[in-house]
Specification:
The chain has 408 residues and is of the alpha+beta class. The protein is built from 13 helices and 15 strands. The protein has helices at residues 3-13, 19-57, 79-85, 121-124, 151-156, 204-207, 215-222, 241-251, 261-264, 266-304, 306-314, 319-355, 378-407, and strands spanning 64-68, 74-75, 90-105, 108-117, 131-133, 140-141, 144-145, 148-149, 167-172, 187-192, 197-199, 210-214, 227-228, 230-235, 256-260. Strand 6 and strand 7 (144-145) form a beta hairpin. The model has no long low-confidence stretch (mean pLDDT 87).
Length: 408
């Protein structure tokens, strides 16, 4: 058995001559445990919001999106684009044309984002799962083009699930100059009609701005015949996603961007990652402060055990072994605090996941969830555990050596 570790373990659990040392040691372990628990719970809440937002995006965003690096559009028959779409792992591919326009309904108007898609868009995404209303999913019928609006956009324009009048859409002409005497001549105008449904992604980016319609309508409106803004793809089940994505990136290198769902919403998820990192840094500083209690506990223990040190030296223990005794003592306190803190943190996360005890306060009824979402990621637990050990070990290393030279 490791001699310094054996003695340190005895010191940790044995009764000291001064009762205050036991109390300070317990407070030190509790402080580390509380800081560790806070890390587990806080990072898990950030993970919960991250996973919640990601689940909303997957109903509207494609699995993969291929878009041009330069310019807004590219020819639909581009050989490189066709090569990407013809890969054997691709199950569904749909062309899209997307741009800004002005929507006018009765006496209300709003700047919107028109997204024209092919008829197989419902096979590509889970759009049918987020539709609300009495109608059915449809983009066109005969010579009529339908527009499926985001639910918040419909509210802004004063519509219900079904709008009775046509929705007028204006887009600036790509060529020519604006005639200020007759500004309407500078715009292309067309009508959209209601299929009796709206979509509800539960994200303001889509619900407040987007109109989903047929790609032929978008091409006519924006004068983009034979062009696409992007091609959206879904892979066959069982495909190696990372491998296929890398192959597509290699094919379209320098000409096309290949983005997965997270990369399509890069700004949103980047902000969430930064917030999570900042929370981790602040709580680590709190952990460092908590570890100062260990320094005080070990210092008092060194003073209390001076007579024991003399005895150990007489029995043949070296100065190095004696220093290691107190190093092990501090490390055991920080390790105990880490294990207990992680255990309590995981228990609290499980309780919140199961019963949702901590709600969102007075605003809980205004959101799609009533309590804080929690998601425990194993990699976070590993990072937290080693962070606590690193901070705890570093906190005791110098003080133990310093006090050992001065007092032993």
């Amino acid at each position: 058995m490791n001699f310094p570790f054996f003695i340190a373990r005895r010191y940790l659990f044995s009764k000291k001559s001064t009762h205050a040392i036991n109390i300070i040691s317990a407070i030190s372990a509790i402080g580390v445990a509380v800081a560790t628990m806070a890390l587990v719970v806080t990072l898990s809440v950030f993970n919960g919001f991250h996973d919640l937002v990601a689940s909303f995006f997957t109903s509207f965003d494609p699995q993969l999106e291929v878009s041009p690096i330069k310019g807004k559009t590219v020819a639909a028959d581009d050989p490189t684009l066709q090569k990407i779409c013809s890969l054997p792992e691709v199950e569904v591919a749909t062309e899209t044309v997307e741009d800004m326009a002005l929507a006018v309904y009765n006496d209300r108007q709003a700047m919107v984002r028109i997204k024209g898609v092919e008829d197989n868009f419902d096979s590509l995404t889970h759009i049918r799962e987020i539709l609300v209303g009495d109608g059915e999913y449809a983009l066109h019928a005969a010579d009529m083009n339908y527009g499926i609006l985001g639910i918040r956009l419909a509210e802004r324009l004063g519509m219900g699930y079904t709008f009775q009048n046509e929705l007028r859409i204006y887009a600036p002409k790509r060529e020519g100059q604006l005639n200020m005497a007759n500004p309407e001549e500078g715009f292309v105008a067309d009508n959209l009609y209601s299929p009796g449904v709206l979509f509800y992604v539960k994200q303001g980016k889509y619900d407040k701005n987007y109109i989903l319609t047929s790609i032929s309508f978008a091409r006519n409106l924006f004068a983009q015949q034979g062009m696409v803004s992007a091609v959206e793809l879904r892979l066959k089940p069982g495909s190696d996603f990372d491998k296929v994505k890398s192959e597509m990136q290699e094919i379209g290198k320098g000409k096309f961007l290949v983005k997965d769902r997270y990369e399509q919403q890069e700004d949103t998820f980047k902000i969430m990652k930064i917030e999570k990192l900042i929370a981790y840094i602040f709580l680590t500083f709190i952990l460092i402060v908590a570890c100062f209690n260990i320094i005080g506990s070990i210092s008092m223990l060194i003073i209390d055990k001076r007579n024991d040190v003399v005895t150990l030296r007489n029995l043949g223990a070296s100065d190095k072994q004696i220093v290691h005794i107190f190093l092990f003592e501090g490390r055991m306190i920080s390790t105990t605090g880490a294990v207990v803190g992680i255990a309590i943190g995981l228990l609290l996360c499980w309780i919140q996941q199961t019963w949702g005890i901590v709600g969102l306060g007075r605003s809980s009824g205004s959101f799609i969830i009533d309590s804080y979402p929690v998601s425990v990621h194993p990699e976070d637990i590993v990072v937290i555990f080693f962070t606590v050990l690193a901070v705890g070990y570093a906190a005791v290393w110098y003080p133990v050596r310093y006090f050992a030279r001065r007092l032993l």
